[in-house]
Amino acid sequence: MKTMSRDARGFTLTEMLVTVGLVGILAAVALPSVASRTRTFDMAREARQLHTDMSRLRSRAVAEGREYEVVVAEGSQVTIQRREVEGAGEGEDQARGIERTARFPEGSSVKLNGSDSGTIVFSPTGRVSASGDIVLQDSRRKLTVRVLASGMTRLIVEPIRTDQR
């Protein structure tokens, strides 16, 4: 049987406990930062998706010859839905009314600047009822989906400066 020399024994229990303790402390310090970044990335992903959805919505309004609306609920939600024509009967249109609801991460805020009703309607001509900005903001940055009167949309990303907080 082979015997190990004193130099090749491995780690002591004390060394292992100190290492595990240091890793735990580092993880506890890094976790809040990682969670904050995850919320920021989620908000950015939803903002890009909203920009894409609105561009697609304009195309669908023109192609299908019907109105679509984007409803911005102050807080953290935006709903994209097919606009119902008054007096329409029961049918496919009403069953497929809501297209998508974007929910933004906790700690972010959503507001619509430029429209008193909180709604932007894309007409069959591709134009919008009211141009405005859908502003998404958290502690790190501000993302703006700008809707022009022509119905075109732009995504604007601005970091929040420390002196503005």
Features:
2 helices, minor pseudopilin epsh fold, 165 residues, alpha+beta, 4-stranded antiparallel β-sheet
Structure description:
The protein starts with 12 loop residues before the first helix and ends in a 6-residue tail after the last strand. Strand 1 (68-73) and strand 2 (77-82) form a beta hairpin. The protein has helices at 13-64, 92-95; strands at residues 68-73, 77-82, 98-103, 109-113, 119-122, 132-137, 141-147, 153-159. It has a four-stranded antiparallel β-sheet with strand order 3-2-1-5. A four-stranded antiparallel β-sheet has the order 4-6-7-8, covered by helices on one side. It has 165 residues and is an alpha+beta fold. It is built from two helices and eight strands, in the order H-E-E-H-E-E-E-E-E-E.
How are the SSEs ordered, and which strands pair?
Blueprint: H1 13-64, E1 68-73, E2 77-82, H2 92-95, E3 98-103, E4 109-113, E5 119-122, E6 132-137, E7 141-147, E8 153-159
Antiparallel strand pairs: 1-2, 1-5, 2-3, 4-6, 6-7, 7-8
